[in-house]
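quick one, 140 residues, struct below
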Amino acid sequence: MTRSRRIATGSKPGAAVAPAGPGGAPIDDYLGRMVKYIPAEIVTVYLTCINIWNSNLGKTVLFFVGVVLTFVYFLTTTWDGTKGPLWRQIVLATVAFVVWCLALGNPLPLWIPQYNLAVASVILVVVTCVFGWVKPPLGA
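---
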């Protein structure tokens, strides 16, 4: 059984259909939403490429390419033919990519001179936990 990257929100209140996500999947709970907001596939590609092209220019270019890829990837993977894309998930996943990159090491070494890895790591934990509480609207 394949699971969609789209967060399962269920049907709108008062709808005749029982609450379920895409393909009858159960509605995503806190942990399910938290995992689906994390762009693990794009972070993996970023980490692989950053180890190959590890220079200031490489870090900067790969960071911006990763931001665009995250947006496009989530746009396509959350697209539902009848409902369209899940914009809240797309935006939060893109923000999560930025936070993950900062926590993995400064992707913009020339632009953030006061960068602190410890602070970035704490922000990563907070953002990841808070994003799990964000629920897309019912029926979205």
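Residues 56-77 form the longest helix (22 residues).
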